[in-house]
Every structure is written in structure tokens, then in C-alpha cells.
Design goal:
Length: 559
């Protein structure tokens, strides 16, 4: 274990501005406009040498598999042969835009980027508040295929302080007229707050509140043959209770399909629901770095993809038709409605009325990778396990510290934290981390939690035991473990956890204390860094955690 003094000295130097953040790249393009406050990820150069064409040495011994995708410099390749030292990667000619691969079967494609090749016209309608008055604006995809960011910059500059640009309509670029309308009374999706690889996004977040978009009844797909895909990122890979993220619901209550993450078990895996079962777990874990996500319903079950990760869920699907639905939350009503948020920062959405073939899935992924500068060839992985202070309670647009940390380097990112999680529930996140550990590359797990236990009358001894089990299993899975000491919030078992790390009851390769007297987050009453509840860091606090955690794990990725 690294000495605490050395780690704290490093943290203090960063806070004082005397050390650069390791590997830090420009956050946004030079022409970034006011309002695009967060740009993810780091530029392509900060990727451990993988921003290049694949070579003969990028073979099976490095964990690549036949059919894997590689993207660099706007060109994509597929692995066709992976004999050691003699790997062969074949250049891929991609569609002009991600939805093109589905042709007339794309019944909806839209977002703040060109999803259909050659499309020029309205992209989204937005609302801003200026002088206390609501201002409606339409943003177009210009003839050159890019979003009219000049108009967006103008309305963001004119908006009232502390307000957002909310999206009220997403136009269907396919020509079918299946425009998405914001849920009445719940216009919560922002634009101009988060960029992914320099592209504007439709962004949700913990503090945006529940809401999303209504799919019109004119949008119809066969129950056993459809495709749903997104491009961009997700702010977290997990959630729980009735707050798990629901990217899509097709149909109506009682005759519906849903895809969601985490479920009540907080397990971090993607789940689906259909007429046969309200909850079926897949083996897919959504990554939080830029990557396309796609799901195909077929007569034989479901196929899922996310970058170079694939999963299948077998079982014959019944015939029938889904009409309409929702994107962004579950519309069951009541408490479920009140908490069913999304975690997307999407540059685009595609729905097709036919399951994708294997070739179409590959083409969608490749086109999205080229359009969005995705790098599915990345090997190194960071997994975060924790509670609301890692999920991002009280933040807009998903800008939690694990997400912000991607500004400093390129790697596979997974945030398994859940608001309200106890250390018992943090143990339920470990199987997903263990599955991710089977992938090649260097791996870091960041563990931060314990505060919620006292709210559920879990004794300190059990808290220490649970965290000891979490870190032990992560170590056995091959992770380098960074453990964050507890904060100074009343009720947090700060001294007990620090002693447990010192005694080896909690395994840590790196121990970080951001809350010691004199450190940047020591004073929980400081509302420039903490919310008024003295429990949750605000946006500035998450930025501090991201910067300091990265500084203390960056060297591991240089070995």
C-alpha cells in the first residue's frame, strides 16, 4: 500500500496547482461555445498508444477476438485473423451515418448529429429562459451535416443564469415523421451541457428529474424483430430500487418491452422486460466511455452490443406489435415514474422495425465509431463502486466524478455506484466487476462508501467486513484497488475505515484521503464544494475528486 503521506502530498500539490494532472488533454475543441461545460473524453492522443492503425502484434494474446472493431483517425478495421504476431485487420467501409445501415427499416433516427446520410433540416426544438420568458428555438442539421452550434451558442449566451436549454422535440431524420416529443410537464433533457468527442448531446442527469420523450403511436415495430441503438455515452452503468435507468420502453403497460440497467439487485448488468417476464438479466454491462449501444430483438431472443462487448439472451419471443412508447423513463406512474431517470448523454438514437443482421450490427457500430471517435480497441479499465457520492446525486447531466475523470485519459470506464447503496449492496456490484476483469488490460477499481450503513442500522464492524470482502474479491479478480477514506459527514465511519485499511482488513493498493483537515474537501460545510446537506459533493466537489483520483491512479497505467 502506498503511504498516506505521499498520496496526500500529491493531492495537496494538485489542489495548489503546482502539479499538472497526468495525461490531461484539452477538454473541448478550441471553438467551444459558452454552455458546453463538459467535454468527454480526453483527446485521442491520450490513449496509451492505441490511436493508430492496428498491427500484426494486436493479436489474440492481447485479448482481441475475431470481429472486434478498431477505430483511429476516422478509419475503422475489423479483426479477421489473430494468430500471435500475425494478426490481420481488414479496413471497413462504413455507412455515411449510423442509421444508414438499416435503410427504409429505420423508423426513427435523430439527435444533435446527422444520423441519416445526406440529411439536412431540423434536429431538435429547444426551450431556454431569457429575462424570465420562455424562448423557443429550432436547431438544424446544416447542409454540411453538422449541428447549427452558432445558434445554440447564441441562445445559451442569452439565457438566464442557472438555467438550461431543454429539448422539447427530436426530429425524425428518416422521413417517417416519427418525431419524439418531450414528456408533458417533464422537459428535463438538456443540450449544450455535455459534449462527447466535441459533439453536442441529449443529456440526462440525477438532478434533471424524471422525464424524457414520448414515442408516437405511428412508430410500430414487430415484438420479435426490432433494433434500438444509441450513440454517445452513459453516465453510469448501474442503478437500483425504482430509479434504475430505462433507456427505452416500447408499447404500453402490460404489453411492453423495456431495457434497463441494474434492476432491484443493483447488479450493474443490462436487463430486459417483455410480456414473458418483468426482469431478465443479460450478461451485458454498459460502458461509460464513448461507444454505441445496440439491442436486437429476434424470434430466438435478444442480441446486445456495446463496443466490442456482446451478449445474447435466448428464448423465443412471441409475435405481436409494439406501438409507441417512451425514451428516458418508465411510464408506469406513481413512485416508479417519479424516480425512473435515464443516464444518457446521447449524440443519436436509432429505432428499426427489423432486427439487425450480424453484418448490420457491425456496420452500425463501425459507423458510430467513426462518426463519434469511439475507440473500442481500448484495453485499460477503471471501475467505480460506491454510493450517491459516486453516482452523482444532485448533479445535472450525469457529470459525476468517474465520468469527469475521462477528461484526463482514454480507457474503458464503468461506474457501478448507486444512490443510497449500503456496503451490503456494494457487494452486489462485485460480480459485474469480476466479469469485466476477464477482459484484457490493466484494471483499477475505486471503492468509496460506508456512510449509508448507519442509516440502515448496519454496525461499523459489519461495514468493515463488507468492504473487506469487496476489496478482497476485487484483488483476486486482478484489480489495482484505490480506496477513498470516508468524508467528515456526521455519521460516516471515517476513523473505523481508515484503521481497517491500516490493519489490512480492507485491502488497498492506494489509499486516498481527500477529507483530512487542510485537504480540498475537508469542510463539508463549504457550499462552494458541497451541497447544503453536507453529505454530497456539488459539481465543483466532483471535479476535485475526479482530478485527485486520476492523479493517484495514472502511474499504474504507465507501468
Amino acid at each position: 500500500m502506498e503511504t498516506r503521506g505521499r498520496v496526500l502530498a500529491c493531492i495537496a500539490a494538485i489542489a495548489a496547482g503546482s502539479l499538472p494532472a497526468a495525461g490531461m488533454a484539452a477538454q473541448c475543441p478550441a471553438d467551444d461555445h459558452k454552455g458546453a461545460e463538459t467535454c468527454i473524453p480526453a483527446n485521442s492522443a491520450a490513449n496509451q498508444g492505441l490511436n493508430r492503425p492496428p498491427g500484426a502484434g494486436d493479436d489474440g494474446s492481447r485479448g482481441y477476438a475475431p470481429g472486434d472493431l478498431w477505430q483511429a483517425g476516422g478509419q475503422a478495421w475489423r479483426a479477421t485473423a489473430l494468430a500471435q504476431g500475425a494478426a490481420q485487420w481488414t479496413p471497413v467501409t462504413t455507412s455515411r451515418a449510423p442509421a444508414d445501415t438499416f435503410g427504409p427499416h429505420a423508423v426513427f433516427a435523430g439527435g444533435p448529429t446527422q444520423m441519416v446520410g445526406g440529411y439536412a433540416g431540423p434536429a431538435v426544438d429547444i426551450e431556454t429562459t431569457a429575462g424570465g420568458q420562455t424562448v423557443a428555438t429550432t436547431l438544424d442539421i446544416r447542409p454540411d451535416g453538422t449541428l447549427d452550434t452558432a445558434t445554440l451558442a447564441r441562445v445559451l449566451t442569452a439565457r438566464d443564469a442557472g438555467t438550461f436549454a431543454t429539448v422539447t422535440r427530436v426530429y425524425d431524420q428518416t422521413g417517417h415523421g416519427n418525431h419524439l416529443e418531450a414528456t408533458p410537464g417533464h422537459h428535463v433533457v438538456h443540450i449544450g451541457a455535455v459534449q462527447v468527442s466535441g459533439q453536442e448531446t441529449l443529456s440526462w442527469g440525477e438532478n434533471n428529474g424524471p422525464g424524457g420523450f414520448v414515442l408516437p403511436q405511428t412508430l410500430k415495430v414487430p415484438a420479435n424483430s426490432f433494433f434500438f441503438g444509441t450513440t454517445g455515452t452513459y453516465a453510469s452503468s448501474n442503478s437500483g430500487y425504482s430509479a434504475f435507468p430505462v433507456p427505452l420502453m416500447l408499447g404500453q403497460k402490460g404489453q411492453e418491452f423495456k431495457v434497463f440497467m441494474g434492476s432491484y439487485t443493483l447488479d450493474g448488468f443490462v436487463h430486459v422486460a417483455d410480456m414473458r417476464s418483468p426482469d431478465r438479466r443479460t450478461d451485458m454491462i454498459i460502458s461509460n466511455d464513448p461507444a454505441a449501444f445496440g439491442l436486437s430483438a429476434t424470434p430466438a431472443g435478444y442480441r446486445l452490443e456495446n463496443g466490442n462487448n456482446h451478449a445474447e439472451l435466448g428464448g423465443a419471443l412471441p409475435e405481436g406489435t409494439f406501438s409507441g412508447g417512451y425514451i428516458g423513463y418508465n411510464a408506469d406512474g406513481g413512485s416508479w415514474f417519479e424516480q425512473g431517470r435515464n443516464t444518457g448523454q446521447w449524440t443519436g438514437i436509432v429505432i428499426a422495425d427489423q432486427a439487425a443482421t450480424a453484418g448490420q450490427e457491425q456496420d452500425f457500430e463501425a459507423a458510430a465509431a467513426v462518426a463519434g471517435d469511439h475507440m473500442p480497441q481500448l484495453r485499460d479499465t477503471v471501475v467505480a463502486i460506491g454510493d450517491s457520492r459516486t453516482e452523482g446525486y444532485g448533479l445535472s447531466d450525469g457529470t459525476n466524478w468517474p465520468y469527469l475523470m475521462q477528461r484526463y485519459a482514454r480507457y474503458k470506464s464503468y461506474n457501478l455506484a448507486v444512490s443510497g447503496a449500503t456496503t451490503k449492496q456494494m457487494r452486489d456490484m462485485v460480480p459485474a466487476a469480476e466479469k469485466l476483469a476477464r477482459q484484457p488490460g490493466r484494471k483499477v477499481a475505486v471503492v468509496f462508501g460506508g456512510f449509508n450503513d448507519h442509516l440502515h442500522h448496519i454496525g461499523t464492524g459489519e461495514t468493515v467486513h463488507n468492504l473487506g470482502q469487496v476489496t478482497k474479491r476485487l484483488r483476486q479478480a486482478g484489480y489495482h484497488i484505490a480506496f477513498l477514506d470516508e468524508a467528515g459527514t456526521q455519521g460516516a465511519p471515517r476513523k473505523a475505515l481508515a484503521s481497517a485499511v491500516e490493519d489490512g482488513k480492507i485491502t488497498a493498493d492506494t489509499e486516498l484521503d481527500l477529507f483530512l483537515s487542510g485537504e480540498p474537501l475537508a469542510n463539508v460545510l463549504d457550499q462552494t464544494k458541497w451541497l447544503a446537506d453536507t453529505t454530497h459533493p456539488n459539481q465543483a466537489g466532483h471535479d476535485i475528486i475526479a482530478r485527485n483520483v486520476w492523479q493517484n491512479i495514472a502511474d499504474f497505467f504507465k507501468k
